[in-house]
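To: structure subgroup
Subject: Chain for Friday's discussion

All,

I'm putting the inputs and outputs inline so they're searchable in the archive.
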Amino acid sequence: MRNSNRAVLVAAIATAVASTALAGGRTHKPPPPPAPLPLEVTVTATLASVTRSQAGLNTYAQYQISIRNPNTWGLGMIKGTFTAWTNVLPTGTGTANFFSSDNAGCTIALSSTTITCTVPDLLPGASITPFTVTVAAPPSTTTPSGGQIDLTYQGSARFNKDNDFDADDPIVPTPPATVSTTLTDPNPTTVATVLPDATGGTVYTGTEGGAATCDQPWVSITQVPKAATVNLDVTTLTAEKPICASGSCEFFAALKIPGTFGTTTSPPSDLLVITLRRDRCTIEGRGIIGKALQILDENVLYRGATSAGVEDSQYVKVPPCRITGGPVAATSTAPGRPCVASRKVYTIFNLPDVPNKWDYLGDHEWTIWANDNGKYANY
């Protein structure tokens, strides 16, 4: 009887252990991973509006791209691509060709209107370093065209479910989306562009290659020493006239170029070099000599802002660089202070060697060195 009871007990224990093992197996079996989420792709236009290119002045739009792996499950590492293509509206008003990218993994297609960038391995929750792509703005046509650049983009990712990146890993696309940049036609008073080259470039207002004319009597030419976004506006700032030389200022030039460029002792190649040019049609005086001498009585004034954005309450006269030793950059408590590097009147002896050189005859010009942007005026 004792042996029989022992056998029954052993059988019961074995059954319980087996049941526990089965139950434990069901309890600890990992659930299947959730369906992978597509890449999070964000594209932002650096400038909402750019000016169409014109002869002698190429302009550009630029977009910043951020990509993130939103998944949190398992290995989740991905290999992916980012693809973008452009379209210009209205149809038939040019193409917007990709110009460059600061991501070495990007390749511009032969058509120049498509770019493909590789996305490096991304662990769950990780993001790539944001990068930019630059697009050349289409040229202005013979009739006003305006319009916009549409940049459409899409992502695609292969999710590594078993650490081998093979054919059975799921590929998940990111739905396409579009970001637009408004295009404006070249005009006498404003220009907006990105300068994508690390060495910067020169941007000017007007449609005559930087020359002032009776129809475009006041132009601004700015040489920028490094990559930047540039907005130049020589529209008369009617609202600011009362605070500029007691209302005497007639010509204004507003520069919006974020950043600081050089220091007081930097060479001109590291500074903002701003040229303000005024056409002889606007200058009073008797004869050529009388008009030329007027430059001795004309002033260039400036309204700057602190690095915190607090503007001068009034326009102040821009002094010669030979007196100040160079421009002064803005600080958190004081606006920057540019200086006049040179001034001149164009005569038959110093006209530039350009096809429209006679447009310069009799014009007055000021060359200014600055560390940061601001507003200029002349009277």
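Points worth raising on Friday:
The longest strand covers residues 78-89.
The two ends are 124 Å apart (CA to CA).

D.
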